[in-house]
Design brief:
By secondary structure, the chain is mainly α. The protein contains 16 helices and no strands. Helix 1 crosses helix 15, helix 4 runs antiparallel to helix 11 and helix 13 runs antiparallel to helix 15 (about 255-280).
Length: about 300
């Protein structure tokens, strides 16, 4: 059955579409601007003023300068290490912690839950945390200073706890009748049916590790351990590009190259996440919403 809309409803729909299109443009244009600028010819980009809606000429000179920077490759390697190892630690500890406090027969379930939630509202502060990480545990200027202090995110722990609580009690009861203990139940029963929420947690933690830079600023002094985002921060804050990199390029592309290298570095650091994100996005609703539904 076809629905006939009144002129007022059609005007309202057109207004809604216009607002959504405008909002989408405002969200997408900064990304497109960075991409167009990174692909532009440095000389023509300098002459352009205001907004650009396509590359000003075409040149990969900025990417050539970025690839000649040895810090970029080192940053990629370090970030991949933090991403893989850090996410594995996060998932292991978060899954174990969420499973423990989700068990109704656990004696200290309520006090532990209150203590965990308490940390969401009150923290020791940056300086005590720095002293603890560097002096008490001796993790300063090491990879573990990046991975261990943030091993568990309380909000992610609560989401996974809610998911485990929504699982049918019959799964655990039937396994215990067959003689399985809690470890066996977690590994062979709970985890296989919880892949949706685990994928969500992996995405949350993985994106967090990929974008992390503040912990590296605080705890790291060795440049060989810097993640990619910290290298990117240095490039964006630098007042000038390394003259050695400019000397390797032709005179026709030098004007404006210092500015375009920043955009190219942003693209190099952002594209991997943008490519992976759409494939994992479907797990958001499936994982989080199931954990929020109670039977």
């Amino acid at each position: 059955m076809r629905i006939i809309k009144s002129p007022g409803e059609r005007i309202f729909d057109a207004l809604i579409y216009f607002v959504l299109a405008l909002f989408s443009f405002l969200c997408l244009y900064p990304l497109l601007y960075v991409l167009f600028a990174s692909l532009s010819n440095p000389g023509q980009f300098v002459k352009a003023s205001g907004l650009i809606f396509y590359p000003q000429g075409f040149s990969l000179a900025s990417y050539a300068a970025v690839m000649r920077n040895p810090s970029i490759g080192t940053g990629y390697q370090n970030t991949l290490f933090y991403l893989v190892v850090g996410t594995a630690i996060n998932l292991l500890l978060t899954t174990m912690g969420a499973y423990v406090i989700s068990r109704p027969n656990f004696m200290f379930r309520r006090p532990m839950s209150l203590m965990i939630v308490f940390t969401m509202f009150f923290g020791g502060g940056l300086i005590p945390t720095y002293i603890m990480v560097n002096n008490t545990f001796g993790l300063g200027d090491s990879r573990w200073a990046i991975l261990l202090p943030d091993a568990i995110a309380v909000w992610n722990l609560i989401i996974m706890k809610s998911f485990f609580e929504s699982l049918p009690d019959g799964l655990e009861e039937s396994a215990k009748i067959d003689g399985a203990n809690d470890i066996v139940i977690l590994i062979f029963i709970v985890i296989p049916v919880s892949m949706a929420v685990i994928a969500v947690m992996a995405l949350f933690y993985g994106v967090g590790h990929w974008n992390s830079w503040f912990s590296a600023v605080i705890y790291l002094r060795n440049r060989d351990l810097y993640p990619l985002q910290l290298i990117l921060r240095e490039v964006l804050l630098a007042s000038q590009t390394d003259d050695m990199l400019l000397d390797m390029l032709d005179d026709s592309v030098r004007p404006g190259l210092k500015e375009l290298v920043k955009y190219a570095t942003i693209v190099v650091a952002t594209v991997p996440v943008l490519l992976i994100y759409p494939f994992l996005q479907k797990y958001f609703v499936k994982g989080v919403m199931i954990g929020a539904i109670k039977e």
